[in-house]
């Protein structure tokens, strides 16, 4: 009987530990799976961050991308149950993430969190690059 209780206890711990990993609380840890990371990090935006491109990205962010509903006006993110959206004004986060990784997230979402797929669902790949250039403007504010 004791052994039985003990195994239930272990199973519970494993269950919650797995949940914690799925929510990957460390915001600097890459969201792209390890085996793809090197390739994805090398991918660069085909578009220059001109004022026109940034403005186009701003329109997506506040418009049909629906980004603002979770990521808020100032990019710091609204409080959501479960997993908080990224704080785009975090300088360190801006530095550790490449544009290619952000595009991967826009195409795949962030599994285990509320971050949905956007590119290929509600916006095109070009619009995705525009919004990435806009997100870069939150840097250090
Ligand atoms: C329903 C809420 C929701 C919407 C809508 C949403 N996001 Fe997110 N987003 C999140 C959450 C939650 C996270 C945190 C995910 C994580 O920590 O892995 C996140 C994370 C991100 C990240 C950071 C991923 C990383 O590598 O650290 C980027 C970039 C991002 N979102 C961009 C966008 C853009 C651009 C849009 C609009 C086209 C958008 N999001 C729409 C909830 C949302």
Structure overview:
The chain has seven helices and no strands. The protein is an all-alpha fold. The protein has one domain: Cytochrome c-like domain (Cytochrome Bc1 Complex, Chain D, domain 2, Orthogonal Bundle), CATH 1.10.760. Helix 3 (about 50-60) packs across helix 7. The longest helix is centred in the first third of the chain and has 21 residues, at about 1-20. Bound molecules: heme C. Heme C binds near residues 66, 71, 85, 97 and 110. Heme C binds near residues 70, 106 and 135.
Domain module count: 1
Gap between N and C termini: 58 Å
The geometry reads as: elongated
Query: What's the level 1 CATH class?
Result: Mainly Alpha
Number of strands: 0
Distinct ligands, ions and cofactors found in the model: heme C
Q: Mind telling me the CATH superfamily name?
A: Cytochrome c-like domain
Give the helices and strands as they follow along the chain: HHHHHHH
Q: How helix-rich are the residues, as a percent range?
A: 40-55%
What is the quaternary state of this protein? Answer: single chain
Structural class: mainly alpha
Mean pLDDT: 89
Contiguous runs where pLDDT drops below 50 for at least 5 residues: none
Any idea what the CATH architecture is? Orthogonal Bundle
Strand content: under 5%
Q: What's the Cα radius of gyration?
A: 18 Å
From the 3D structure, determine the CATH topology.
Cytochrome Bc1 Complex, Chain D, domain 2
**Main sheet?**
none
* Number of DSSP helical runs: 7
